[in-house]
Amino acid sequence: MWSRPALPVSILPVLLLLVLAALLQGCASRVVPGVPASTEQADAAWHAYRSWAQTNDADAGPFRVNASLRYKTGEHDGNRVVALLWSNGDVPLRLDIMAGIGATVARIREDDTTFLAYAPNENRAYYHSGDLNHGGRALLSFGVPVPFSVPDLANLLNGRFARVFDDARADARLVADGGIAYTLPRGRVRGMLELSPEGLPRHWTDTPPGEKQAGWDMRIDYDEAVPPLPRKITITHAKGYSAILLVKERERPQAFTGEQLGLELPEGTEVLPLREGARR
C-alpha cells in the first residue's frame, strides 16, 4: 500500500508560515491597529515564528556572511564599509570590517566572555572581559552603532532569533496588515517585537509600548530563500546613530581552524581596556 512520504523537517516551518498568512490575511480588512489579538492568533503567530527560528538554529554550522555596512554616529559623519563575519556556528566569532580591498578598519573576535578589537590604523587593540553594560554592547562602545554583540548579529543574520530574544511575551496587539506586536517583558533584549502576517520578525524596538522616550529601533527585510533569511537589517537610534547591514553573499564552508577563528595581535600593539562610549 502506497503511503505519503513525510515532509522534510525544513519545509514544515514554511508550511506553518503559509497557513498562518492565509488565516491572518483573510481577516486583515477587519483589523483595527492596536486592538489586543486573540489568544489563538497570538499563539499561532508566535508558534510559527519559533518553529522558523528553531529550524534555523538546528541548521547551525560553519558559515561566512559578506555584507555591506553603512553607519553613522552623528549628524554629519557617515561610513560605508564591508563586513565579513564567520564562525563554526557558535562562539568564537570573527568579524573583519574593511573600507576597501586590503584596507582593514578593524579585526574583531568575540566569544562568551571576551571582546577583542584591533584597529590597524591606530596600532591599538581594545579588550573587554564580561558583558559590557550588561547588554552585550561592546560593538557600540567600539564605534559601531548597534545595541548587539557580535554573536547577536550573527544570530540575527542567520535567522536564529530565539538565541537573542526571550520566549516570554505579553500584551499581543494587532498591526494594520494582520501582523502582531508583542511586548518582551524579560530577558537581556526587551521591548517590543513585531511579527509579519507570515510570522517573521520584522520590527523590534527597545522602547516599551506607551513610553514616549524613543531608543533603539530595528527593521528586518528578507530574501526569497526557503525558509527565508534576513537580507537587510536597519538599526537606528533617536540620538542619530544608524547602521544598515545588507547581506551580499552567504557561504557554508568547511569548518574553520582555531587559527582562522583567532586574532593574533602584531608585536608592539597597544592594548587598552574598552569602556562604554570609548570610541564613539
Could you characterize the architecture of this molecule?
By secondary structure, the chain is α+β, with helices and mostly antiparallel strands. Helix content is 17%, strand content 34%. The protein has four helices and 14 strands. It has helices at 12-26, 39-58, 138-142, 150-157, and strands spanning 63-72, 79-87, 93-100, 103-110, 114-119, 124-129, 170-174, 180-184, 191-195, 201-205, 216-222, 230-237, 242-251, 270-273. It has a 14-stranded mixed beta sheet with strand order 7-8-9-10-11-12-13-1-2-3-4-5-6-14, covered by helices on one side. Strand 3 and strand 4 (103-110) form a beta hairpin. Helix 1 (12-26) packs antiparallel against helix 2. The longest helix has 20 residues, at 39-58. The protein is globular, with a radius of gyration of 20 Å. The termini are far apart. 35% of the residues are buried.
Keyword list:
single chain; 280 residues; alpha+beta; 4 helices
Q: Report the oligomer.
A: single chain
Strand content: 25-35%
The biggest beta sheet is recorded as:
14 strands, mixed
Radius of gyration: 20 Å
Alpha plus pi helix count: 4
What's the β-strand tally?
14
Mean of all residue-level pLDDT scores: 87
Stretches with pLDDT under 50, minimum 5 residues: 1-7
